[in-house]
């Protein structure tokens, strides 16, 4: 349900590296997807508000990059504008690409830009990234992030025990303090309602805890957390609480396992976190125990995270299937996790 490959490829092109979606050295390319029997991949247009200048212009630049790749690879890849396109593409021997946006701030609070994104093919929007925008607030506090950065810089420059303890405390505060007071703005509520009317799925990954419950209140259809894990297993605020998992399941929504090592298992500050399949399995087992198997899918966050050493790319999906199977997941449940649950949500929403 999520990868940042289009943004990564656009960045490499800007640096003079001639790599495309068909074959590249990142986490996702079409040849490896085809070999791994992919049916569909969501491709996010990721915009970083404090880096990329005008967010609307940036999302349009990334959209042009995406459309160039669709055109260049039309022999094996086709876009999804409605649910029926998925089966049509499969029947034609092609994989499907569903376009998403990661950063609701690209709309600048303008409802007409949602309509433009829909016309561009966007069918899912991650409402916030890690910055406040016109839609609402994320779970990572900018103030705590600033404090953490200052403490870590001090420790890097003067690696004393005292500075390490201060940096560790700041790190824990940043990663463990959810935003329970700031949710969707009034404009954000309007935008989520309009998204549902258009046939665009609200994605609550990155959104504040309060924002999650605001989306639950505003929407009627299923929504998603495209790349979020279980907070009970790894107490990072990017992950969902057990209550959120249950509420998402009751709505008929879905959450996608994120392969980012720091969202799977916590390590002390300064200790390398390579990422393991076992930690992904722990999250999967907990999520299914809390919300049932129908709430779980795959989110990966490929090309938006440091490489997970045991799941380094799309070629690793069979290894994950085997690991989950060995831990007691039957083939029927694995079919749901790997594709059927996502298809059900898309049938209900787009």
In short:
The chain is α/β, with parallel strands linked by helices and 350 residues long.
Structure description:
The protein is of the alpha/beta class and 350 residues long. The chain contains 14 helices and eight strands. It has helices at 5-14, 30-35, 55-72, 84-91, 111-119, 142-157, 161-176, 186-198, 209-218, 242-251, 261-264, 277-291, 317-326, 331-349; strands at residues 40-46, 77-79, 95-102, 122-126, 201-203, 224-225, 254-258, 296-300. The strands form two sheets. Strands 1, 2, 3, 4 and 5 form a five-stranded parallel beta sheet that branches. The protein has a three-stranded parallel beta sheet with strand order 6-7-8. Helix 5 runs parallel beside helix 8 (186-198) and helix 12 packs across helix 13. It starts with a helix and ends with a helix.
């Amino acid at each position: 349900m999520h990868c940042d490959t289009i943004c990564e490829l656009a960045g490499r092109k800007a640096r003079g590296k001639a790599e495309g979606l068909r074959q590249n050295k990142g986490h996702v390319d079409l040849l490896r997807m085809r070999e791994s029997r992919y049916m569909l991949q969501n491709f996010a247009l990721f915009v970083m508000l404090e880096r990329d200048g005008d967010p609307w212009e940036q999302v349009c630049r990334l959209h042009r990059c995406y459309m160039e790749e669709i055109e260049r690879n039309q022999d094996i890849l086709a876009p999804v504008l409605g649910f029926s396109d998925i089966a049509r593409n499969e029947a034609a021997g092609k994989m499907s690409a569903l376009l998403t946006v990661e950063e609701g701030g690209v709309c600048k609070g303008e409802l007409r830009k949602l309509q433009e994104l829909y016309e561009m093919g966007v069918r899912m929007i991650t409402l916030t990234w890690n910055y406040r925008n016109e839609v609402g607030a994320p779970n990572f506090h900018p103030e705590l992030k600033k404090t953490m950065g200052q403490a870590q810089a001090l420790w890097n420059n003067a690696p004393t025990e005292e500075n390490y303890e201060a940096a560790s405390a700041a790190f824990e505060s940043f990663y463990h303090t959810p935003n329970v007071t700031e949710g969707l703005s009034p404009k954000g509520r309007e935008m989520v309602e309009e998204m549902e009317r258009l046939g665009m799925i609200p994605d609550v990954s990155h959104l504040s805890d309060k924002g999650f419950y605001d989306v639950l209140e505003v929407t009627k259809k299923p929504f998603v957390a495209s790349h979020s894990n279980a907070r009970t297993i790894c107490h990072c605020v990017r992950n969902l609480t057990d209550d959120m998992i249950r509420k998402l399941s009751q709505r008929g929504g879905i959450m996608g396992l994120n392969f980012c090592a720091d969202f799977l298992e916590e390590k002390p500050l300064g200790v390398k976190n390579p990422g393991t399949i076992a930690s992904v399995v722990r999250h999967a087992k907990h999520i299914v125990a809390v919300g049932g198997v129908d709430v779980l899918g795959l989110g990966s966050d490929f090309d938006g995270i440091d490489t997970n050493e045991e799941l380094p790319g799309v070629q690793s999906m069979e290894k994950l299937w085997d690991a989950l199977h060995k831990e007691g997941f039957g083939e029927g449940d694995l079919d749901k996790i790997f594709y059927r649950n996502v298809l059900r949500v898309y049938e209900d929403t787009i």
